[in-house]
Structures are given as structure tokens and as C-alpha cells.
Amino acid sequence: MYGIIATWRMALEGITKADAMLKEGSNAKDAIETAIRDVEDFEFYKSVGYGGLPNEEMEVELDAAFMDGDTLDVGCVGAIKDFANPVSIARALSKEPVNNFLVGAGAEKYAHRHGFERKNMLTERAKIHYHNRVKETSADSELKPYSGHDTVGMVCVDADAHMTSATSTSGLFMKHAGRVGDSPVSGSGFYVDSKVGGASATGLGEDVMKGCVSYEIVRLMKEGKTPQEACEIAVQSFDQELKERRGKAGDMSLIAMNNKGEWGCATNIEGFSFAVATRDLKPTVYLVKFDENGKQYFEEASQEWMDNYMKTRIAPLVRK
Questions:
Q1: How far is the C-alpha of 22 from the C-alpha of 206, rounded, in Å?
Q2: Residues 108-121: what's their mean pLDDT?
Q3: SS3 of 253, please?
Q4: In this structure, what are the phi and psi dihedrals at residue 174, rounded to the nearest 5 degrees?
Q5: How far is CA 237 from CA 36, 94, 144, 233, 251, in A?
Q6: What is the CA angle 27-28-33, rounded to 5?
Q7: DSSP H stretches of helix in the chain
Q8: Is 185 annotated as a binding residue?
């Protein structure tokens, strides 16, 4: 058995490439890096990599992480600017004996020393989004972050049961310079253990980090829960905990896969999508729906939905 699961529809093309690699015997490390890089390189996905939405100073700061489920090695970068594929930098850091989590200028110096590709990650399209957002906000009110924070997070298992997890994001639109969310934080944005399985998150990092939700899902799987059961228990219980303690809970969506290739997903928001492929399942996008009793279920995305998704993403923008 092998498989890969990822947050959001935007991961479909990447996991399709990874699926083909896994079929040919590639390992989980190479497959997941390829899949994440595919999302990072596509400029029309405005929450990851090239074309990612900027912070309040109109600079694109990226966060990424990579974890090896066999060794538990972790590599992470936060608030890194002007490098094309932060997930590859994170993978390189995971091999270092120390200094595995670098941020800002330190991460950029490391990437430069090790020959990673420099690239201006701020696109003209992202500038239009920025200027339109500034105009929407009155001059005398605080510029608040836009709600978009669609991290791409993945979990992968290869035919030899080696597992990896990885994330990449540009974080909150209009965030403060230097803000880092849950995505590169082990246990919050991601976690994987090849003896059990892995999980990854997308949502409001400030709330996801309060519960170490990715680790909690892996812990529940270790106790014998299926990936679906673990996701639902972890997300629903922590969503309720936050509401009881704070009066509200931020967006939180988690995906998981165990070392048998079984998978699961849970969310506390409407409109979440995820993509998954296994030996027995072609690369498929699912939409998470809720019935009249609030119970979650999955529906395969229709061709109409898929066509509209891409049409919306690549539609021309006009500066207001």
C-alpha cells in the first residue's frame, strides 16, 4: 500500500505527480517534496509560494516544514523571503544534526549558502490583491489580516511503509512582518511517525497551535483509532474546548493517513476540500459537507466544481 493526502484542491496536480512516483517505487520523501513544490510554483494559488499573498509591508514571507517519519527528523523555516521552494530548504534542514528550525535572515543565509534558488516571490497579481485590500480598509482603522490562510499540508506513505509529512504557506494575508503560524511548528501544523501515521493542519495558526492538533491525531491513531476517528475526535473536542474557554474557535481543518494508507479528514468550517491518492484510489478531490444534524461527510468534487475552481483562481484581476 502507498498513498498521499493533502489539504485543499490546490494540491491535486502535485499529488498526481507524487502518485505516479509512488507507483514507480519512489520513496515518500521525494514524492512529498515534489507534490509540495508543485503547489509552491503555481502563481495562481495565492496562499503558498510564488504568488503568495504578502504581509502588511507588501513582502512575501513563507513558512514550511518537512518531517521524516522513520527518524522523526524535522526541518522548518519561518518568515523566509526571496527563495523559490521553502519546502526543499526545510527538507535540507531536517538532515542537519542541529539548527533544524531557522527563521528570517538566518534561514535566508542558510538557503543562500546551500545554493537554493533565489526568486522574487511577489507577483503582480499579489500586488493587486494587496492594493485592493488596503483600499478596502479605511485610513484610520487598523489593517486586519485577511481570512485566507490556505496552507498546503501533506502526509505520504510509500510502498515500504516509510512516511513523511510536509507543509508550505505564505500565512495570513496582511500579517505583521515576522508572524509565523502553526505550519512549520512540529505537532501543530504537522506530525508523522512511520510506526503509526501522520497528520497535517490548515486554518488559523494561532488557534491550531493552542492544541497541538496534528500530534493529538497521531497519538489517537497510536491508541488504535482509525485516521477518520482520530481526526474527528481531535478537531471536534478542541473546537469545543476553544469555544468554552474563549467563546470562539478559529478555522481548523486536519487531514491524516496511517501507515496502511488509510486516511481521514475533519474540519470545523464549511467549504473545505482535500485531495487524496492511494494504490486503490486515483487522485481525487473531496468536499467536506455537513448534514442537517451537523454530521460531516465527504462528496467527490464534480467536474463543474473543479472547472469553476480553476476558472476563479486564474480570472484576471483589476486594481480598484
A1: 34
A2: 98
A3: strand
A4: 70, 20
A5: 29, 32, 28, 6, 14
A6: 110
A7: 12-23, 28-41, 86-94, 104-113, 124-136, 205-208, 213-222, 227-246, 303-314
A8: no
According to the annotation, is 150 in a ligand binding site? no
Residue 65 C-alpha cell reads as 516544514
pLDDT for the residue numbered 320: 87
Buried b or exposed e, range 99-132, using 16+ CB within 10 angstroms = ebbbbbeebbebbeeeebeeeebbbebbeebbee
Query: What are the cell numbers at 67?
Result: 518531517
Residue with cell 509560494: 49
pLDDT tens by residue, 236-277: 999 999 999 999 999 999 999 999 999 999 999 999 999 999
Class of residue 319 by CB neighbours under 10 A (exposed 0-12, middle 13-18, buried 19+):
exposed
User: What positions carry a catalytic annotation?
Assistant: 151
Distance CA 124, CA 63 (A): 21
* CATH H-level, domain 3-314: superfamily: (Glycosyl)asparaginase (3.60.20.30)
- Neighbouring-strand partners of residue 193: 197
Backbone angles phi, psi at 164, to 5 degrees: -140, 160
Indicate if the pLDDT at residue 209 is higher than 70.
Answer: yes
Quote the distance between the C-alpha of residue 292 and its chain's center. Answer: 29
Q: Residue 192 and residue 182: Cα distance in Å, rounded?
A: 15
Alpha carbon separation from 254 to 8, 140, 155 (Å, rounded): 11, 37, 11
CA dist., res. 316 & res. 71, Å (int): 45
Has 53 been labeled as part of a binding site? no
**Nearest partner of 154 among 269, 33, 249, 70, judged by Cα:** 33
AA letter at 187? G
Q: Determine if residue 203 is labeled as part of a ligand binding site.
A: yes
Q: Is 204 assigned a ligand-binding role in the annotation?
A: yes
Handedness of CA 38, 90, 249, 206 (dihedral sign): negative
